[in-house]
Amino acid sequence: MKRILINLRHFLEYLIILIPYRLASILPLSFSRVFSRAAAMVCWMSPGVRKLLCANIHTVFPDLPENEIKRIARESLKHIFFNIMEFLWIDGRPERIRQRYVLPENVTAALKGHVRRGERIIFVNPHLGSWEASGTIAPFYGDVDMAAVAKKMRNPYLNNLINHHKRENVKGLKIIFSVGAMKSSVKALKEGLGLGFLIDQNTRVRDGGEWLNFFGLSCPGSVAPATLKRYADAHNIPSVIIYGTSIRTPDGKITACFEYLPKPFESYASDKEVINDLMKITENYIRQYPEQYLWLYKRFQYIPPDASPELKEKYPYYAIIPPATFFRKRERRPFDAL
To answer: Using CA atoms, how far apart are residues 282 and 278, in angstroms rounded to an integer?
Structure first.
């Protein structure tokens, strides 16, 4: 009976999402703008949503006045909804991609150069701007065949709708689910594909996560991009790490930006050091475009057990010392079975 109720709930959730999902692709983009504003207003009415948004922004920008924190929070909500609706409106249509997404000529030339030399591009993206657009822009403009690591949704109907939509409507993009992602990622590298990772997500230590620096706080995150680069180097697979993000510019379009690591990969002492440098780049972009960051996520959820009382006070209300299961490592290292 419980399984039937869960399945019914999943199906109802699917139907609720399906209506705006389909409307977004067939109605003018102006509908998406109106819908996004309305959806943001409804979300802002939730005390829990407001509290989470404002707590995250205050954690990163403790000196901002309350009215500015609230402004950034409201704009962030609008931005999130419009990104989703715009992505659905584009729906893999070349004329709409050209209309809304921009890849500067120098970036296009650089990406095509890596492809021409047979180098696998390991993209690192933050939840900033339109991260969904990044998976479209590189294959469309830069001829990059790539695989993006995505979390499989608990709702099978929504997972089939959203993740399969990406795979079918974005030419050159393959979806790899996070469970078993390391093995699938290595396979993708061997097949000549690039890889795309979202850098600012909580990753347990037991799953290969490390404590990384993010705005002066320690947050768990994945070092997979650096680990895969190291694996590629050890197996003579040409590769390069590129930090990419797609920012909404004043003209309303999404423009892709990219950066290389600030120093040669081989000069880094550890994978953690590599990712920390990439996190610094993320911080710089967030400071420039705070309204375009995903504040609706418990990024500061875990506090290192050895944190001082003073440091613990800097974490938001929802942060906790992680349980023992957070640290229990798997019996084998990520590449032992490859």
So the answer is: 6
Q: Do 203 and 221 contact (CB within 8 A), yes or no? A: yes
Residue pair 248/266 in contact (Cβ under 8 Å)? The answer is no
Q: C-alpha angle 270/56/199, rounded to 5°? A: 30
| Rounded Cα–Cα distance for residues 290 and 56 (Å) | 11
Is the CB of residue 87 less than 8 Å from the CB of residue 130? yes
pLDDT averaged over 10-residue windows placed end to end, the chain, 338 residues: 64 66 83 92 95 98 97 96 90 90 94 95 94 87 84 62 53 66 86 91 89 96 95 96 95 94 96 97 97 96 95 97 82 42
Non-local (6+) Cβ contacts of 198 within 8 A are 125, 126, 127, 131, 149
What confidence score (pLDDT) does residue 11 get?
A: 60
Greatest C-alpha distance within the chain: 58
DSSP label at 152?
P
State the Cα–Cα distance between residues 335 and 228, nearest whole angstrom: 9
Structure tokens at 90: 């584009």
Backbone phi and psi for residue 337, each to the nearest 5 degrees, phi listed first? -95, 5
Angle value at C-alpha 48, between 327 and 2, nearest 5 degrees:
70
Q: Pick the closest to residue 265 from 202, 223, 210 (CA basis).
A: 223
DSSP notation for 82-117: HHHHHHHHHTT-HHHHHHHEE--HHHHHHHHHHHHT
Closest among 176, 131, 138, 175 to 282, alpha carbons compared? 131
pTM here is: 0.88
pLDDT for position 151 = 67
CA–CA separation, 198 and 244 (whole Å): 10
Q: Report the distance separating Cα 125 and Cα 245, nearest Å.
A: 6
Judge residue 112's burial from the number of C-beta atoms within 10 Å of its C-beta, 0-12 exposed, 13-18 middle, 19 or more buried.
Answer: middle
